[in-house]
Amino acid sequence: MRVPIEWLNDFVRPRLTAAELAGRLAMTGTEVERVEHHGVDALEHFVIARVLERHKHPDADRLSVCMVDVGGSTPSQIVCGAPNVRAGQIVAVARPGAVMPDGRKLGRAKLRGQESNGMILAEDELAIGTDHDGIMVLAQEGSPPGPGMTAEQLAPGAPLADVLPIATDVLVLEITQNRPDCLGIYGVAREVHAATNAPLAPPPWADDPGSDGPLDGIAIEVACPELCPRFTARVFEEVTIAPSPPWLKARLLATGQRPISNVVDITNYVMLLTGQPLHAFDLDRVAGGRLTVRRAGAGEPVDTLDGQTRKLDPETVLIADADGPTSIAGVMGGARSEVSADTSRVVMEAASWNGPNIHRTALVLGLRSEASARFEKGLQPEQAMEAQAAATRLMIELCGARVAAGTIDVGGPGPAPRMIRLRDARIESLLGAPIPRERCRQILAAIDFTTAPADDGLDVTVPAFRRDDVTREADLIEEVARLDGLAKLPATLPATRHAVSPEVTGATAPAGFGALTPRQRLRRAASDALAGQGLHEVVGWSFVGAEQALRLRLGERRAVVLENPMSSDQSQLRTTLLGSLLDVLARTRARGAVALRLFEAGAVYLPEGGGSLPREPYHLGAVLTGPVRHASWRAPDPARADFFTAKAALQGLLDVLRVPFEVRRGGEPFLHPGRAAAILVAGHAVGWLGELHPLVADEWDLGEVVAGFELDLDAVALPEPPTYTDLISFPEVREDLAVVVADTVTAAQVLAAVRRAGRPLLAASEVFDVYRDLERLGAGQVSLALRLTYRAADRTLTDAEVASQRAGIVRALETDLGGRIRAS
Question: The pTM is what?
Answer without folding.
Answer: 0.70
